[in-house]
Write a structure and sequence with these properties.
single chain; Aspartate Aminotransferase, domain 1; Aspartate Aminotransferase, domain 2; 2 domains; seven-stranded mixed sheet; three-stranded antiparallel sheet; 12 strands
Length: 371
């Protein structure tokens, strides 16, 4: 008997996560100096974290020999109050990124035979959380305008449905579903089904009509809203995310989460980042400026850019997405090419301008042919 024979079926069947390429891999393959490589593939906040967050984290470095708060209570309280809950912290669960929340939900609730409904393309962690726990993904296509198809998802509900996952705004398309339609959907779904709304990117939306589903969390709904400090707050490297839910759900998830989920450094940075409202406002404004600039420039090139409420764009360049991404690497530009279309992170304006210049060179070279 091999070690592989001892592995659970669900673990054997987990789909591989495909991350963005690294500067190191591009340097090795094409001989480009790391300082000349532009990585705009992983939707990282190119403006970086708040200086106050950096200062707070630096202070904690000298104390990393001491365990952090095992239950992350202060940040749970802070997030709860900021989102309209009481100051108990008992509506907030902390995890290692929003993906940690999804893994926790799968571990706690999904068992063999349970169905979980979501649309694709979307964040790959949903399928992973279901399959590793022997659940059955019920995967539906997005609508023609690349949004989660709420009607089709509702029609897919069976007596085996345990959970529904909705990425809003969606990764990789950047699109959103109508907030009022989503609220109506939540209250129409049977009460014994858990509805997970992944709002990792919602704080980057510029549309006032895009509303969080935190408002729909109540004792009468099994709604879980997942968020992260990786995007707007620029703390992807310290890996901190959270879920908001009702207190009954919280008691179950909190019991099952690991103690010491957040490091001293991560918790200090997140607390300070939440307080620096001015920096966050400036960062978001700069990102929105960059998003408009890239949308305009790509449109001038003849590309189709899907409307985005995130810090990335989903772009039909007319080229094969994988081939286009590989060609970009030759020029020191890393974007994502493992979807039907290209997913491109919005950077600082100097990065955006450099990227536009590179893509113009690729077009002018004629090396790639349109599909």
């Amino acid at each position: 008997m091999s070690l592989e024979d001892l592995v659970k079926d669900g673990i054997k069947n987990i789909p591989a996560y495909i991350p963005g390429d690294t500067a190191e891999s591009v340097e090795k393959k094409y001989g480009i100096a790391p300082e000349d490589i532009l990585k705009l593939a992983s939707n990282e906040n190119q403006f970086g974290p708040s200086p106050k967050a950096v200062e707070a984290m630096a202070k904690e470095v000298g104390r990393v020999h001491i365990y952090p708060d095992p239950f992350c209570i202060e940040i749970r309280k802070k997030i709860g109050v900021m989102n309209g809950f009481d100051d108990s912290g008992d509506n907030v669960v902390i995890a290692v990124g929003a993906s940690g929340i999804l893994s926790l939900l799968g571990e706690v609730f999904i068992k063999k035979g349970d169905e979980v409904i979501f649309c694709e393309p979307t964040f790959g962690a949903y399928a992973g959380a279901v399959i590793r726990n022997d659940g059955t993904p019920v995967v539906l296509p997005l609508t023609e305008d690349l949004k989660f198809d709420l009607k089709a998802m509702y029609n897919a509900i069976t007596d085996k449905t345990k959970m529904i996952c909705i990425c809003n705004p969606n990764n990789p398309t950047g699109t959103v579903v109508d907030s009022e339609e989503l609220k109506e959907f939540i209250h129409k779904v049977p009460k014994d089904i858990i509805i997970v709304v992944d709002e990792a990117y919602i704080e980057l939306s510029s549309n006032p009509d895009v509303k969080s589903m935190v408002s729909e969390i109540s004792d009468d709904t099994n709604v879980v809203v997942a968020r992260t400090f990786s995007k707007l707050y620029g703390l992807a490297g310290v890996r901190l995310g959270y879920a908001m839910c009702n207190k009954e759900m919280h008691a179950i998830l909190q019991k099952c989460t690991s103690v010491f989920t957040g490091s001293r450094v991560a918790l200090a940075g997140a607390m300070a980042a939440l307080d620096d409202e001015e920096y966050i406002k400036k960062t978001k404004a700069a990102m929105l400026e960059g998003r408009k600039y890239l949308t305009d420039e790509f449109t001038k090139m003849g590309f189709y850019v899907y409307p985005s409420e995130t810090n990335f764009l989903y772009v039909n360049t007319g080229y094969n997405a994988a081939e286009f991404a590989e060609e970009c690497k030759k020029y020191g530009l890393i974007i994502r090419g493992n979807f039907e279309y290209s997913r491109i992170t919005v950077g600082r304006m100097d990065q955006n301008e450099k990227m536009v210049g590179i893509i113009k060179k690729i077009i002018e070279s004629g090396e790639l042919k349109k599909i």
